[in-house]
Amino acid sequence: MHRRRLPEPTRRERVARAGRIVRSGVGRLAPLAARQLLHARGGGGLLPAAVAARALRLMCQDLGGTFVKFGQLVASSPGLFGEAVADEFRACLDTGQPVAFDLVRRSIEDDLGMDLDEAFAYLDPRPIGRASIAVVHRARLHDGREVAVKVLRPGIDLEVAADLRLMVPLAELVAKETGEQIAGSVLQLLDGLRQQLAEELDLRNEARALAHFRALLSEARLERIAVPEPFPALSGRNVLTMELLHGVAIDDLAAAAARGQDPAPLVEQVVRAFFTTTVRWGAFHGDLHAGNMLLLDDGRLGIIDWGIVGRLDGDTHRFVLRLLDAVLGDEAAWPDITAHLTRVYGRAIQVGLGMSDDDLTRFLRGIVEPALTRPFGEVSLADMLEAPLIQAAKARGARAHQRPLRSVLLRLRTNRRMIRLADEAGGLMSDFTRGAFLLAKQFMHFERYGKLFLADRPILADHDFLAALVGEART
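The structure assignment produced for this chain is given below.
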């Protein structure tokens, strides 16, 4: 694996990036604030969420890089943010800022050490994809094969490094001083991004991931899932040449209907592929949003953009296996889940929720088991995330969203104690936390297209299949 060391932005570069963030924020959000004020004065209350979402989405696209990553998370999580907001952010999945073709040409030639005409018979100057850190162009090899050429955005490493340098200390301060769940989630996301981007900004890692997962899925005989073939001789640190897959986004319902394709069986294959690689090998596609899944012309489902790959350390892999044991009916596994979380985070969770080990075991089971065994149409990730907040407030004799000063101060004191306990135990920013966060992000994605195509089926529909996978993983 190649890890790209992010540059250390100078003070001038950090100030320049901060200035750009402020200008975009003022330009996009000030008109929204003025409109909200006028709306409220007219007795209209709060503007619809989609109105605010549009301003925030435009700001994310203005700033690119890390901000677009946030936008992609929102776009893929309608269960958390609502359908209208997620739909507004859908553009963040594949419509980043354009890159001048002269810069694209220079990156390709510098990275491959050859002229563009020597590498490709033809390369379309118009991009077919504009993601957060790269652009993708259609090309043709000299032997006639069509390929996709992914090129990192020039200067993206410095831009991302400046964002993280500005955001991480602020997020750490807010998370540790308040302990609020949203602050902790933002910090986890930033910490995960810092780790992932060290890999994602070297496209040699993605080339290796393509080859690796093509082999794994072939071994698992998941023939309806397609992963592009990489061309290592035409790939490098900043350029990745791979097989071009022809298709439409899986959530483009009109296009799927026009093709006469039913995405449901293919989504089932994606879920099966995810569990197969995660359970057997502790590895999985780390960004399975709808924009990275294509209904192909040949009836298969193509999975693209393997820049983010989740890899579970041994301890976290064993935790996932034990969690599946529990959901599959092993009653003795549920206390093991609680014991593992206590080892990772100390007594932080018990303190925050005001529960004994036995009570915490029952509480966790009441959240996790229905989420994995009930049909997608009955599962709400937002309700799952709300449950700990409600219980934590109940433990303090308050309501989850009470605002009286005494309630707020009590919550902050308890939250700070939780953070201190988790930090002392080594659970904050640990391999377990990063792995669990990536897995949780995939379940956000599953919720979206699960509700679209598999509303009457649970995520763990095939118990025999999963039990066999767990058994194989242990042997």
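Interim note for the steering committee: The first strand starts at residue 122 and ends at 130. Residues 11-92 form one domain.
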